[in-house]
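hey all, quick one before standup. I had two proteins in the batch that finished overnight and I want to keep them in one place so we stop losing track of which output belongs to which input. First protein below, input sequence then structure tokens straight from the run.
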Amino acid sequence: MHHPGPPRFLSTGETTQLAPRDPDPEATYEWRIVDAPPNSEATVGETPITEFTPDVPGHYRLGLNAPDGNHALTVRAFPAAYENVDVAGGSGEAIRDRDADRAEIPYAGDRAHDGIGRPRVRLDASVEGDAIVVDATATPNPDSELAAEDLDVTFVIDDRDVSSAIAAGRTNPRDARQVTASGSETAIETDGSGTTLRVPTRTVPDRLRVHAVAVAREPGHEPRISVADAVAVDRVGSEGSAGDASAPIDVDPIGDTDSTGRADPTGRADSPGGTGATSPDERFTVTRLNQPPEWTENARVYEVYVRTFADADEGETFDAIADRIPDLADLGVDTLWLTPVLTNDGKPHGYNITDFFDVADDLGDREDYEALVDTAHDHGLRVLFDFVANHTARDHEWFQDAYRNPDSPYRDRYEWQDSGEPGTYFDWELIANLNHSNLSVRRFLLDVVDEWAPLVDGFRCDMAWAVPDSFWRELRDRVKAMDSEFLLMDETIPYIPGFHEGMFDVHFDATLYFQLRQIGRGAAPARTVVDAVEQRAEIGFPDHAGFLQYIENHDETRYRVECGDAAAAAAGAATVTLPGVPMVYAGQEIGQRGRRDSIAWEHTRGEVRERYERLLRTHADHPALGPEGDLERVGYHVASGDLSERPIQADGDAVHPDDVVAFLRGSGPNALAVVLNFAPAEAAVAVDADHGRTNVVTGEPCVVTDGDGTERIAVDDVAVVPIGE
């Protein structure tokens, strides 16, 4: 099906790329504007892959003539102004500047977001009687003075499902929908605004997808729109169902609901939510389409730089990595990210690919790679494939034919500068940017996806910021149809909230990485790690977005080299105890100093290895430390390890208050107090919460009493203490 995908929510002046899906490079595709608001002069281009920019607020309906028929795409445009607010991810265009003379993008500084940022929204669906019910939970931006009830929600039913319903002889679900405000039983605004949407089950084809944004109208400001969320309701047994996200359950026509409004037919809040039925012949499953895979809630990632990880002869690297899998399982990680394994130009990092359909000979053969994946799976580890979609190596056969050859059939598959050199970033001389507006390139990349996705558990998507959003949206639908628990993780630096809108599950948190480096250098107080995490919501990431937390990777200097061992211990603990998915870069767990050097396994620092084993075990044993656990600030007071010392000294190895941070994770009986100490000396920290006396990381008592009789948590690098004991 060539339909261009889900509806788009844009601000006026924001550009999105339009592309037919599953394209045939030999076919003809034609775009047109079917309907637009009065006074709009917006246009679409004449090429199969084109761009659209709404110029006035309102509803747009775009048409695509394709070999399999005519398709419609809804675009909802808002009069939103986003100057100085981080919302650029709707199309990716704001940072996809092809000007070779442009300034380089900073890695991940503390970015200003003046003004009030985006609100957030979450959709949940259930079946009640003879209706599909979609509830929207809208949340104001943390910097906003608006209350939740001040926010509007705009729903759009997916054009693909409207077409399917009509083709099946059903009533158009858009015509039959009812949108109500919270607590209201009557239909309100016809533009789809409200907080609850109801659609009769009789109108639902094999699948019904509902998308929505929250809209904040601050006094004196133009509207701000959230990152869109989406849910899918699938008829059980229909071919339209994607993946196996939830199992069908026979329920009463109207089930109980939990506090989020989701159907709970068993009466348990932890049931496989969102299933229901109106008759024995009508059963449905519900999927939250932008929810990260469930397994990421307690995932621990380990990055392997494949060519220096294991001491191996030519062609035996995959086998050597497989031999170390049991050791990695013992360490406590459960997800393996391998840097690129495909045939390349000989550079050791492997990102300059020359053959996207075969593995590199120096690592082994295809059978060896598949055996490595099987070994990882046998030991409970998932495997991530490093997917490169932005470029090829200049040694790739396409580029070799196209370079300085205007008549080459591959010429239009690359971007070119006026100088005749290929488009590239950061003066990288050995790669050439692909032209994602070329149908042959899109077809090629989708075939690459189909080649490797069935073998692995997810993609780490290289340079995701440089590839148009329409490609990532199609990739997501494609792999989630194969496996609803397939992980998509983007390397987008700095991160972009809009990339969680139908594209990625987990995002590189370079902001936290940068802040941890600043703390380790002594350039920022430790308490700013909490600021870095809270920034996610401030710039508009939805609450369900996932984040990869790391202090090292193959592109960065080892943390201990730059900041010292004491700070490295606390920073590593921060990635495990803050809400997100922790990552260990190969060698980090043994005290390695070289970034891409061969791992010196024979020089393992036993105390570092044991520390990471304890940290990762603590993460596995305490779900409150995972992405779903609450993060809450708490008052605390710091003294050095010498409890008689007054005042606190700030020189030498002595602890300064800025070296320490305390915060709470989780809630209820599973809540924990976390204290991090970046200083070389032990700190004694009084935390304003009732807590236990044992550090669950070490299993040892950690509470001391100072000269004033105040109980303090003694902490070398990290203490994690239960609350309320």
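OK second protein, same deal, sequence then tokens:
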Amino acid sequence: MQKFTQYSLFIALLCFTCLFTKTLQAEFDPELLSQSTVKVLIKNKQGIIGAATGFLWRTNQQVVTSLHVLSSDPASKIIVEFGKKKRRATIKAVLLKADLVLLKINKPVTGWQPLNSFNGEKPKYKSEVSALGFNQGALGLSTRLLRKGYVKPEILQVLLPPKALKILSNSNVLDVKLPIYYLDGSLLPGYSGSPVVDAQGALIGIGDGGLENGAASVSWVIPASNLALLEQSEISTLPDSFFTISEVFTGEQLVRGQKISAIDILNSLDQPGSFWSLLGSSLINSAIAAPFEPEQLFDSYELPEFIKVEYQDFTFVKSKSRTYAQMLNTSATPAGIEQVLSLLNQLFYDYHVDYQQFVFDIYEDDRSGLNIAVPQDVKLTVDDGFLLAKGQMFCRTCDYEIQYHARRLNDKTQQAIEKKPYQFLHGVADQHQQDLNSEGDYAEYDNFRSIEEFGAFRYILRAAFSDFAEPFRDKFELNYFTAATNRAAWFQAQGILNRFDQAFFQSVEQNRGTDCQHTGLSVEKVGICQDIEIMYKIMISVHLTSFSNKFFIYP
């Protein structure tokens, strides 16, 4: 009986210990972190030119954020928003090598809680971390749930496209050998300077990024251990070469817009989807709890429209809009982007189409870092189990369509991808051609099939097919296909161009030499130009399927 009693006491004590330990391991509470997180805006004579996130550190008079968001313009101002209240800030200290700045607030705001400590241990591989920030200067806060990835060496240089590496190396503003935490996913524009915490809510780093590689983003986490070096820094001015980094950190440059009054916003509440769509479902209510004052004017920049599309295990958030020329300028592989257009250039020679200025909306999935692009003003939507681009002349029964499909891969397939990723992707492309041939006779453009490696078992295959050579057909199709895998899942996109009938081919031949940029074109030429422009947009959109944070191996 005594042994039984001792055993019972032992079990009870063990259960209490487990419960007590679990209680001590607090979970991350975004509501609590929102009391330390602020918005940082940079303003010059033209208005707001930059937006980032920051957090109070040690005292309510100190804010940490990313250095690159500041402006080299001596007349620019740093504004820190504490919810509804704004405060001017000055530079107290900078840590150039880590892209960090410590700001000083002369007139602190009461009721906000500074962070006072951090977890200096490196997060484990595949552990989840969370960033809390303002997406492109949005009114409300939102979280990004990310996974710690693996890359060796885990330094900034590995993530930098060649052009960015050259500029930063010559600027001496940021140490390209800086140890970082690599993320499998990506941070949204505006999250530079955001606090990044572990599952227990302990600060482990500072979000950074704002670089771009075509449609893809480049972001990372600066280890929180750099905060001690920042506090010890005696440098409080920007170097002469600071202006050069604006050529690299393009992701957080804001769109100029009209000033928006609080009355305008209140009136917009009556319009479905016009205002609350900016906030999204994951906003922290306390950050916007204060009522608007009618006389308050927001500074001159466009509030981003928060658009989120959920499809299977993916959550795509619209992160930015870019012209083709902008993405070509930042791409590490501009020749690859240009190659896809060579096919259409052969079909539509002697037509002038200014596709450099075509604008595309970029959507990112934070967990996988997968990016997809659609022409601006075309909606990304889920219909009957398919992810589709819908808009004028875009639909499942139209001549033009962009269609997406995804599938989670089982353990056996994941192991096969690890061993032979190219074989897997070539098999996917071959199967796609077989599916096409179930409805016709499709040939592949052999010189278009290619596979791009992104690192960490991430690959994208691109291929093109058509049935132009099939006899006895009245209508033909050009099909551009991409297949992406990160080992855990497989994602495909296909652009369907089904406009090619004999009447179209004849009209194209008769109107060669047309400049689609001219006004006063005939109705026939306007129609042809419209079709050609849509084809370019589809081919570019599908080609831009990519992963953020691509690895670059330098000697």
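Flagging for whoever picks this up: The chain has two domains: 30-238, 308-547. Residues 10-24, 256-300 have pLDDT under 50 and may be disordered.
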